[in-house]
Amino acid sequence: MSSYSACYNVFTAFFMGKKMMVEKILNQLKGTNEAEIIFQMENAYNKISNEQNKWYEKSCFTCVSGCGECCRNFEPDLLECEALYMAAWLMENQPETANKIAEGKFPFEKNKGCPFWDENDSYHCTIYGGRSCICRLFGGCGSRSKNGKVMFKPCKFYPAEKLSQFKTPLAHKNYMQDEILDIFGTVPPVMSDLMEEVENLNPQVKRTKLIRDSLPETVRRLKWIISMNGQGQ
Q1: What is the mean pLDDT of each run of 10 residues along the chain (233 residues)?
Q2: pTM, whole model, 2 decimals?
Q3: How far apart are CA 207 and CA 204, in angstroms?
């Protein structure tokens, strides 16, 4: 028996009834290893969001509204746990899109980059709630130097004129921990620290695949498990 049921009860109590973004699919997958991984992925994504919000609120440094340039020519590659969550999110929130993806058909398959990037939508990302780790982390995290100190470099797509408008004018360069603290009064979360938790969810599978390669087979896999689990969508 998977530990999913116990985890589910504990976290349901913790969130005091807060609805998960993939609750229906989790119920249909109940008792499976996939359900546990998906459940833990949502918790990991919530942690990323919480850590980044602390940084955003204190630093006032957020992505420029409506930008999306980092996604234009970039297709994320996914760990298995990311693909499982993305597939579950689509099956829960965009079932018609999920069905097409199971057949290998993506909403914006002519894109050079992400097949979910919509140039004509002001928010661009059409699967925001199910997006991958790098999409959540990029631009809103720092890294570590060789001595373990936090570093932060503004995204290369961040307009230089907007960087110059901060109280302390910024540039497209690396800022070290002491500088970050002087400028913002806090430091950003570190990408590698947050990714470590995600990578440990399924440590046996470190291989990644591009969205176009991994997602169709993952949607089909979840659909098959649900049918074998005696749960209809």
Answers
A1: 40 49 94 95 95 94 87 93 97 97 94 92 92 94 95 94 92 96 96 92 85 97 92 56
A2: 0.88
A3: 9
